[in-house]
Amino acid sequence: MENNRITGLLGIKYPLVQGGMVWCSGWRLASAVSNCGGLGLLGAGSMHPDTLREHIRKTKAATSGPFGVNVPLMYPEIEEVMRIVVEEEVPVMFTSAGSPKKWTPYLKDHGIKVVQVVASSLLARKSEDAGVDAVVAEGFEAGGHNGREETTTMALIPTVRDAVSIPVIAAGGIADIRGYRAAFALGADGVQMGTRFALCRESSASEEFKAYCRGLAEGGSRLLLKKMVPTRLVDNEFSAKIAEMEAAGAGKAELEAFVAKGRAKLGMFEGNLQEGMLEIGQIASIVKEEESVADIFASLGLA
Amino acid sequence: MENNRITGLLGIKYPLVQGGMVWCSGWRLASAVSNCGGLGLLGAGSMHPDTLREHIRKTKAATSGPFGVNVPLMYPEIEEVMRIVVEEEVPVMFTSAGSPKKWTPYLKDHGIKVVQVVASSLLARKSEDAGVDAVVAEGFEAGGHNGREETTTMALIPTVRDAVSIPVIAAGGIADIRGYRAAFALGADGVQMGTRFALCRESSASEEFKAYCRGLAEGGSRLLLKKMVPTRLVDNEFSAKIAEMEAAGAGKAELEAFVAKGRAKLGMFEGNLQEGMLEIGQIASIVKEEESVADIFASLGLA
Fold first, then answer.
1. Which of the residues A44, B9, B185, B279 could staple to A71 if both were Cys, CB 3.0 to 4.6 A apart?
2. How much is the ipTM here?
3. Under a CB-based contact definition with an 8 Å cutoff, are residues B250 and B256 in contact?
4. Whole-structure pTM value
C-alpha cells in the first residue's frame, strides 16, 4: 500500500494516520507515529491554544516528518487555533464535528492540506464540494464523538467511496493487520487508527485508563448522549448514570447539566475511572498488550 | 476462496450463505442460491410448521445442492420444527436467538450440520462447547434481531476468530465484492449475506418493501426495541412511534403492547410500508438494482 493517493497527498511513507484524540494525542504520540512513516495528529480538542502551540513546536523538534492537528470545529476558540496552525506552518489539518465550508478555503490559502472527518456520504460530498483534500469516514464502532446515522465502518466505507472522488481514509474498528487489510478491501485509500494508539506507551492518557480499556469486553462501551452529541463511552459509574437517565427519558438540558465540563480530563488524563468520562472504540477488545508505536507499525508489517 | 473450511463443511462450491430471513427466504430464494453454488436457507421464523415442510419439499425439488433452514430458538413450536427437519433430512440447520445447548446434540445425532448465529465471542465459545460445526458472527449493522453488545462486524469478526477454532461466517454490512473480500481479510471463512438477497427478485418479500429498501438512506434504519429483543427497523411511521415511546422512557410492557403480532408480515410480505414492521440491514444503502440471485453471484465473481 505504499505510494498510493494518501501517501502522495500527505507526504508519508505508509497510508496510516493516528487519530487526533482528546487527552491521548500529544507531541510524544504524534511525533512517534510520524517518525515511523505514518501521519501523527495532535488532538487540539483537549488543549488550550497555548498548549497546542507548545505541542506543535515539540512535535516539530521531535520529527522531520509531516504531522497534523485535529480540531473539532465546535472548539470555542477556533479562530485562535486556526491562527496558530498557520503561524506554526502545520502541514495538515483534520477537521471534525462541524461544517467544512467556513475554514477550508482559509487553510488551503495558507498551503495547509485539509481532511474532514465524516460519518455519512452526505457530509463527504459536502466536504468535497468545500474543497477538502480527503475525508476520514468514521464508523459507529469508533470511540468518542459519533454520527447520528450510526452507520458502521463496513457499511460506510463503500458508500462514501461511491459518493466522492477524493481519497477516503477508513476509521472505526481497525486495530490490527486484519482490519487494516479489510479497510483497503472496502475501498479505502488509507486507515486512521485511534483506539490502538490511545492505549500505547506514547499516548498521554493515564495508565489507569489504558489498563482499563485494554481487552475491554464486547459491549463494554455504548453510544450515549444521543440528545446532545452522540458519544461512545466506556462503561463505568458515570456512563451507567447517563444510560439510566436516558432510559427514563431525560432531556437534553438535564443531560447537559449532568455532563459537566472536565469529566473527560478527570477520567482519561487523571485516571478517575468511575467518575470520569472514558472514550474508546469497540475494537479495544482485541488490544491487549502494552506496546510502543514502533511495535504497532511492526505488527502491521509497516517497517 | 473455493475449497476452504466452509465449502468443505457444507458441501458447497462458494463460501457464501444466504441469510434465512423472515418473509424473504422461501424455497424460490433458497433453491436459487443453492443452484448457484452457495448455501440457500429457508427462514422458518415466519413459517407455520406445515408451511416450512412444504418449502423444504419445494426446495429439494428445485435444487440438488445442499440447503438449510434457519430457526430462531425462541420459535414457539420449536419441537415441531426440529421433528420436521429431521424427517425431511434437511442437511444444515442455522440456529439463532437462543442457547445452542438444547438442540445441537439432537441435530448432530441425526446427521445434520449445525451453525449457530452469534453476536459475541462469549456466545461463540459457548456454541463451540455445545458442539456446533460453525458460527455466523453477525454485527450491529445487520437487519432484524441483533445483539445487546452492539458490536459491529469490523470489531466482531477478529474477536470471534480469536475466540474459537471452528469456522466463522461473517454477517452484517456485506453486500458487494468489497465487503465480501473484507470479511475474509478480517479472518472469516465464509460470508452470510442477508440484505442483498432480501431485495432480489427471488425473495418472497413484497415488491413495495424491496423498492422502499433499495438505496435506503444512511441512517434509514435504527436499532430499536432494546428493552425487548434489539431489532434493526427501517424508518417509517411504525418505527417512529417506537422511537418516540422509547425516548420518552416507555417500558417493556408498554412496547410489547404496541408491537402486536403480525406487524412484520404486514410490512414485509403485504407491503404496508408505514404501519408494518420493516427489517433490513444498513448496507441496503448500496443495493440499488433489481436483480436475480444469478446476477448477485456474477457480481461477486462467483460464476
1. A44
2. 0.96
3. no
4. 0.97
